[in-house]
Automatic annotation (TrEMBL):
<keyword id="KW-0812">Transmembrane</keyword>
<keyword id="KW-1133">Transmembrane helix</keyword>
<feature type="transmembrane region" description="Helical">
    <location>
        <begin position="6"/>
        <end position="25"/>
    </location>
</feature>
<dbReference type="InterPro" id="IPR017592">
    <property type="entry name" value="Pilus_assmbl_Flp-typ_CpaB"/>
</dbReference>
<dbReference type="InterPro" id="IPR031571">
    <property type="entry name" value="RcpC_dom"/>
</dbReference>
<keyword id="KW-0472">Membrane</keyword>
<dbReference type="Pfam" id="PF16976">
    <property type="entry name" value="RcpC"/>
</dbReference>
<feature type="domain" description="Flp pilus assembly protein RcpC/CpaB">
    <location>
        <begin position="60"/>
        <end position="160"/>
    </location>
</feature>
<protein>
    <submittedName>
        <fullName>Flp pilus assembly protein CpaB</fullName>
    </submittedName>
</protein>
């Protein structure tokens, strides 16, 4: 057999295999469908759409409130003890006003935690799961203040006691206050 015949046979078998693979992978003439994608009938599609409508919100946001998520680490989330349904105070550590030292202040108090990470419900499992986001329920004004504070400074959470109903005093502590030992009691 000469080289020309070998090349012609290779091209012929290559085309034949390409057509075979194309035919096997494109079911019902849809070449975009993957091989492992399950075929759904119309009822299953409607059931999934209905399920999707109920799964959009796992938590209820009170009228006039909004949900906002903030990035947290282990320290900012009180060693991951912050759970959905708990209440927190939000502390902002801000480098302003310009010309003064950094100060910390309670920005928001008695804020409901809607979710941690992707967990929307408290589970019976006692593990402290790792999460990097906390979703809080705030008014639009509180959300705006929180978004601004996290852009210019550091935001951390203080976990409130389960029975605590009292609002926190809007405390501001500056570097000078720490050095002088001046703290309100």
């Amino acid at each position: 057999m000469n080289t020309k015949k070998i090349w012609i046979l290779a091209i012929f078998f290559g085309l034949l295999m390409s057509i075979l693979v194309y035919t096997l992978t494109s079911s019902n003439g849809n070449a975009n469908q993957t091989l492992n994608e399950p075929q759904l009938n119309e009822q299953e599609i409607n059931d999934q759409e209905d399920l999707g409508m109920t799964e959009k919100f796992f938590f209820e946001i009170q009228p006039g409130k909004r949900a906002i998520s903030i990035a947290v680490n282990e320290v900012q989330s009180v060693s991951r003890f912050v759970k959905p349904g708990s209440y927190v105070d939000v502390v902002a550590i801000l480098p302003f006003p310009i010309g003064e030292h950094t100060s910390a202040r309670i920005l928001l108090d008695d804020i409901k935690v809607l979710a941690v990470g992707k967990t929307f419900q408290i589970e019976n499992d006692e593990r402290n799961e790792v999460y990097e986001m906390v979703t809080l329920e705030v008014t639009p004004e509180e959300g705006t203040a929180l978004a601004f504070a996290k852009e210019i400074g550091v935001v951390t959470l203080m976990l409130r006691g389960a029975d605590e109903q009292e609002t926190s005093i809007r405390t501001k502590i500056s570097f000078e206050d720490l050095v002088k030992g001046k703290m309100q009691r």
